[in-house]
Amino acid sequence: MGHSGTERARAERRATPLAGFTVAVTADRRAEDLLALLRRRGARVLHGPAMRTVPLEDDAELLSVTEDLVAHPPHVAIGTTAVGLRGWFAAADSWGLGTGLTEALHGARLLARGPKVKGALRAAGLTEEWSPASESMAEVLDHLRTFDLRGARVAVQVHGDPLHEFRTALTEAGAEVLAVPVYRWLPPEDPAPLDRLTDAVLAGTVDALPFTSAPAALALIARAETRGLRDQLLAVLRESVLVACVGPVTAAPLQALGIPTATPERFRLAPLVDLLCHELPARTPALSVNGHLVTLRDGVALVDGEPRPLPPASAALLRRLADHPGRVVPRTELLRALPGPGSDPHAVDSAISRLRAALGTPGLVQTVVKRGYRLAIEP
User: Fold this and answer.
1) Are 267 and 178 in the same domain?
2) 3-state class of 317 per DSSP?
3) pLDDT for 320-371, tens place per residue?
4) Per DSSP, which regions of 190-267 are E strands?
5) 316, 342: one domain
6) Residue 371 and residue 303 share a domain
7) Residue that finishes a domain, picked among 129, 164, 183
8) Which of 30-44, 69-83, 119-133, 279-293 shows the lowest mean pLDDT across its residues?
9) Is 1 a residue whose pLDDT tops 80?
10) Which CATH number is 303's domain given?
11) Which of 93, 132, 140, 316 has the fewest beta carbons under 10 Å from its own?
12) Looking at residue 8, what is its pLDDT?
């Protein structure tokens, strides 16, 4: 391979840092965007939606709240998500209430949780009074506590997370709080994909679970509970799987269950995927084998950074050899590691030959005559 070919191969490796990793996605809304980002980075993706959204134009509760706000405009209105605001304005237009809603909000003190929310408000011809630098609802609440809220009508756009504590704090300060329920969620019509995803997590074949909303995370656990699998699932999420959340609001209910979470600095899909690209390889140490760095992932071995796809039998043997780095593993033990029933020791020799061919680098797997095989690692 020429110099340009070598550089191209390196660029391809950098572009697919998730090769050999399996990532499970429970999102419904914007799922395709997340799935595409993960696949572009080389991940194998399992998709099992944990919930489905109620179409806004069919949501009688949102219609009722919108009519109430048009008839009795709020003193304060708080936008929490840009996509939720845009959907609300579009639904109001479809009901013939778009102009009335905009006029009602014109007279309110508008707070925006983050820059995307500010953009959605301005696209609707509205201007926010204040927005927190942290995009944190806790900071929004601290700011609201500087207001005299006694008797004030406060509209809070909720987006999956009902913000119970936030709304309770406003009520205790004397406000009349109206929740604007943008995008309410129901269980999926077909739970089978979610069940398959859960079974894969419990089987240990999933490396990471990225969550884009707290309700999706809780719906996954609730579904597992109906199947009698809640405790097993929580144990795996606490110990074995990288649980990544798009932001602290999504992470909070999982952390309350004792599940460690990772969160990107910027609360967006692309940084969430970048986080997986950094964290997953870091959790998979490389072995120095006969002068080469070898990393085993699900169905893929990286040899000096080059991905080498492995058949199931080859992957099983390499995993067993890696469990005993440098030690001789007897044929009888390797035979037990092969998938499917088998009693012929010669099947091990054939599988080792295929493993060597798949790795494509001589000298990584050594034969120890009459004893078995070992990875070429010095003690």
Assistant:
1) no
2) helix
3) 898 888 899 998 899 888 887 666 778 888 989 999 999 999 999 999 998 9
4) 208-211, 242-245
5) yes
6) yes
7) 183
8) 279-293
9) no
10) 1.10.10.10
11) 93
12) 44
pLDDT tier at 287 (50, 70, 90 boundaries)? confident
Q: Which residues pair with 308 in a beta bridge?
A: 301
Q: Which residues contact 180 (CB under 8 A, 6 or more apart)?
A: 62, 65, 66, 69, 88, 155, 156, 157, 158
Supply the CATH number for residue 113's domain.
3.40.50.10090
- Backbone CA torsion sign across 147, 153, 158, 161: positive
**How many domains in the chain?**
3
pTM: 0.64
- 255-262: Cβ within 8 A, 24+ apart: 257/221, 258/234, 259/234
Q: Which domain holds residue 333?
A: 287-375
Q: Inform me whether the pLDDT recorded for 202 exceeds 90.
A: yes
The two structure tokens encoding residue 108: 């309110």
Query: Residues 71, 123: one domain?
Result: yes
Last residue of a domain, one of 132, 151, 183: 183
Q: Are residues 85 and 161 in the same domain?
A: yes
Helix 346-359 / helix 312-323 crossing angle, nearest 10 deg: 90
